[in-house]
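> tool_call: predict_assembly(chains=two)
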Amino acid sequence: MNKVFAQHAPSSVAIIDADDGREVTYEQLLGSVTQTAENLQRGLGRGVVFHLASNTVASIVAYLACLEAGYPVCLLDPGSAARMNPLLAAFQPDALFLPDAMEIPAGFSCSASVPDGTYRFALSRKGGRRSFLHPDLALLLTTSGSTGSPKLVRLTRDNVLANARSIVSYLGIQPGERSIQSLPMHYSFGLSLINSHLLAGATVVLTRHSFMRPEFWEAFDRTKCTSFAGVPYIYETLHRLQFDPRQHPTLHTMTQAGGGLRRDLIQHFHELSTSAGCRFFVMYGQTEATARISYVPFEQLGKKIGSIGIAIPQGRLSLGPAEESDQQELIYSGPNVMMGYAQSADDLAAGDELCATLRTGDLATIDADGYFFLSGRLKRFAKMFGRRISLEDVERDLEARFSIRVAAIDREGQLLVYTAGQHDMDRLGITRYLAQTLSVPPKYITVDTIAEIPMTASGKKDYKTLSS
Amino acid sequence: MERLLDCFVQAFGINRDQIIPLKLAYQSIPEWDSVGHMTLVAEIENTFDVRLDSDDIIGMSDVCKAIEILQKHGIVLNDAVLTKSN
């Protein structure tokens, strides 16, 4: 990315911390990233870095320094230290970037603090990495919320750049654009906001306040932000709070991804944004494609409510036969498709397994204008708060941890977990365990005990019966 | 009052004894984030059969504020007097 930054006007602003008013120009960002990359190289021969990313200047610099210096970096949620342990065990990172307030995990020793003191760098005590790392591997992102499956998406620098370029192109991001960082950096959609705006020479605005606090929108107005991004629950909440874009005169672009927004709310925000002279983009993506796969051009939205739109520039969407279904599976091809998954340290040596083609696991149809509509899911996922939660991972995790039989289904935004066996089952305990590991309020999880899990004739769990 | 505190227990999935009414506030525990907040709003609305407006939702940043907002809607909690001593 440094090469890209060097092409932007050196004095233009790359990042604004709206809470303390600090502005970082592209020249300063380039300097900080170079410095941090050099420090990294001095302390670490080679290896994988786990970065507990937050929406701060130091965190963005650390991420970019890893990309620059060629260290594969895994971005993780700093709010869930306990959830990091299975990942540490599975992938044995060589170094950690972690917020100053966080305890350094066993097996690591603190090596240095970043200049502003908000982050620390810790090295593994094991010393020198023995296992091979694929030279193209640059970024690792989590894909499932469950502790039971330490599964990462393997991405290259080209994946990141290609996806950012496509986003810059269809959103028309100009250097004057200012995007408020409303989503976490460890989340692929949140990271794509940073990548695309920095690639375009635009400005990323940071605040620690949540989108539902007045302080967030004060920061938005004060720093003259132009774009806002949200997942469905954010738009649902904004609707509830009677959010009106007309009260924020600099707001020009609103984007939505991270799951299907209710049609009536798409319509609502379409009308609201049109009347405010704003553009509202409904989009679709997966971490497996770095972030973005498709979008609805905003001027078409009124006619295409409920559609995931058309492929992003450089990408291609098609339909293919789906296994065990008479519907068709959505298939995406493009330069932003991951190399593959990793479930252990050894997998980090693997090369490209997908050849730029991703079976999305979503069932879809196409209309006469070439717009795609999702019609169901092939893989069993629950979509909660913008994240995909693998129901199979939830089952596997609970079955191993509690020694019970489990069938998990998703019903209207609720995660339903059926357990079979002992009647003295600690249902509350399971609910709380899931709420914590998945970061979902327990209200959205129901655990029910049934006599036995119904099975199909072919010996698989009978989800149809459970769902009815 | 217990009915209100039970809303917090339900929304955040925490134990009743984890709630210190004068200390529990928005973002004071990991469970009370923006997702948890809207869950709490729904829980309070269902429990007390009220409809909170956007100012109520934004303003409900701790337990005392929640009591005040309920009072504004004509719901008086019988032992809702929180003094600095408890």
